[in-house]
């Protein structure tokens, strides 16, 4: 394999390769699904600025119980819309353990139906609505403890090969 380097000129190819190849299709059970990466902004347990999203299988989809905190504030007492989008995007990323293939977000669309309040418990669910070739059409909801829908989201994920991530390392941002 070619040796890939990051923006600091350090070789990263082997790390990225190991990371991508660590993903395997997870069989259906209710156990917690593994984070995408220890430092993932959505679910990484080692990212102090992240959301620590914890996700389980739920039938054909996934489910998470989550609350936003002061780090995610937009207007006082209300979660920033971008923070909410981060969490919904990351939740979609957990469906890939069922799909069994690597994919990335091409389009993400949210309807903010009511404000998402800080320190309030929410239930998040996501599922694959349909697949056409490489296109995965995904859908999700966030409900409050009373079962009211506060967010609905849809996404288009595109299935990619391992090389997608390797190429990204080969062409660092300028
Ligand atoms: C065993 C496996 C288990 C897996 C387990 C977990 C795996 C975890 C994997 C990864 C961890 C990530 C952690 C998750 C976090 C949340 C997800 C993220 O944050 S992802 C980062 C943000 N997203 C990007 O960085 C993408 C940037 N975009 C791209 O790289 C390209 O645009 C890409 C690869 C998405 C597509 O590029 P093209 O050149 O390959 O494909 P083209 O031809 O442009 O589009 C493909 C098809 O989609 C349609 N399409 C494109 N946009 C569309 C749209 N808006 N609406 C409808 N169709 C659209 C097109 O018409 C085309 O369709 P036609 O093949 O011709 O039928």
UniProtKB/TrEMBL annotation:
Classification via InterPro entries: HotDog_dom_sf, THEM4/THEM5_acyl-CoA_thioest, Thioestr_dom
Reaction(s) catalysed by this chain's protein: dodecanoyl-CoA + H2O = dodecanoate + CoA + H(+); (9Z)-octadecenoyl-CoA + H2O = (9Z)-octadecenoate + CoA + H(+); decanoyl-CoA + H2O = decanoate + CoA + H(+); tetradecanoyl-CoA + H2O = tetradecanoate + CoA + H(+)
Entry EC no(s): 3.1.2.2
Any one GO molecular function term: hydrolase activity
Presence of the UniProt keyword NAD in the record: no
Compartment list: Cell projection, Ruffle membrane; Cytoplasm; Membrane
Protein's UniProt name: Acyl-coenzyme A thioesterase THEM4
Naturally occurring in which organism (per UniProt): Hoyosella subflava (strain DSM 45089 / JCM 17490 / NBRC 109087 / DQS3-9A1)
């Amino acid at each position: 394999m070619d040796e890939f380097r990051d923006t600091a000129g350090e070789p990263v190819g082997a790390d990225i390769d190991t990371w991508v190849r660590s993903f395997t299709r997870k069989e259906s059970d209710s156990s917690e699904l593994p984070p995408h990466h220890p430092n993932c902004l959505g679910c990484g347990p080692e990212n102090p600025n992240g959301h620590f999203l914890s996700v389980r299988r739920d039938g054909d989809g996934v489910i998470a119980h989550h609350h936003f905190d002061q780090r995610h504030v937009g207007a006082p007492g209300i979660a920033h819309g971008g923070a909410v989008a981060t969490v919904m995007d990351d939740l979609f990323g957990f469906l890939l353990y069922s799909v069994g293939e690597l994919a990335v977000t091409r389009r993400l669309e949210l309807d903010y139906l009511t404000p998402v309040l800080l320190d309030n418990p929410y239930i998040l669910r996501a599922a694959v609505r349909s697949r056409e070739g490489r296109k995965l059409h995904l859908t999700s909801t966030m409900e409050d403890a009373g079962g009211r829908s506060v967010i609905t989201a849809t996404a288009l994920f595109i299935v990619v090969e391992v090389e997608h991530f390797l190429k990204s390392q080969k062409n660092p941002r300028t």
